[in-house]
Structure formats: C-alpha cells, structure tokens
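In this section we walk through a basic example: taking a raw amino acid sequence and producing a predicted 3D structure, encoded as discrete structure tokens. The instruction is simple. Fold the sequence below.
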Amino acid sequence: MNFYFVKSELERGSLLLLFLLGTLAVVGNISPAHAEYGDLVLNQHAEKEGMPPVIFPHWFHRIRFRCKVCHADLGFKFKAGGSGINMLKIIDGQYCGACHNGEIAWSVENCDLCHTGKDGLKTQVDGSTLSKLVVPVKDKNKKPR
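The resulting token sequence is shown next.
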C-alpha cells in the first residue's frame, strides 16, 4: 500500500512538472501580436508617444455590433487612420473610450491589451484588398533616374 502511495505521488509530481514546463514554454514564447486579415493597425501616434502600435480586432467587434454602432454613432471613418483617434479623445469617452470605460469593457489603464503590435507597423487595414488593387500613379513630370 505504501508503494502505491509513493507511485501516485510521483505521478502527481511528474504531471505537475510537465504542466509547469508546458506553461513556461507557452509564457516564455509570448511575442507581440500581429494583425490578422481585416484588423486595423493604428500607429499614427503610438510609437511617437513611446507605445507599441494598436492592433484593433475589427471582426471581433463586428460580430458583436452592427457597423452603425462604431461608424455612425461613434464617428469612426471608413479608413484606417481617418478618425484622428488619440488617447486624450479615448480618455474623454470618444471613439474606443465610449465602451472601454471600465463598465462595458476594460478601461484605458490596461494599455497592453490594445497596444500589442510590433514597432514599425504602419497604420493600415491588414490584408486589405483595396491596398492590393490600387496601383500608385506615376508622376509624368518626374524625370527618370
């Protein structure tokens, strides 16, 4: 009977060790988020202010709210970077701050929940078909090199 007890204790210890090693592997591998198709990268002000860019999960919000809620009621433009969002406006309850106020969703004190992008990302809609279809217009007045 004592042998069984020791065996089960060893098994429990081994399982706990495996769990801790697995957790360490996952936590040790955490890296900045990257945008998925349709997400918005917001970086007009973030890096200038010493913060990582914001990765806005558009479809996560879209499955919960109709387009009208954000684009009509809250004033978001239909262009990444077009609304002039900054932290002062958000803290004042505008744009993201209308919901991210600590009552509806987490508040602005939780910086790392939004500012998750890698430095150097430009403001854009990730994977936007529009950006792939629009071809830059060549300047006819520009002399070739």
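Looking at the output, two observations stand out. The chain has two domains: 1-30, 40-127. Residues 2-28 form the longest helix (27 residues). In the next section we compare this with other chains.
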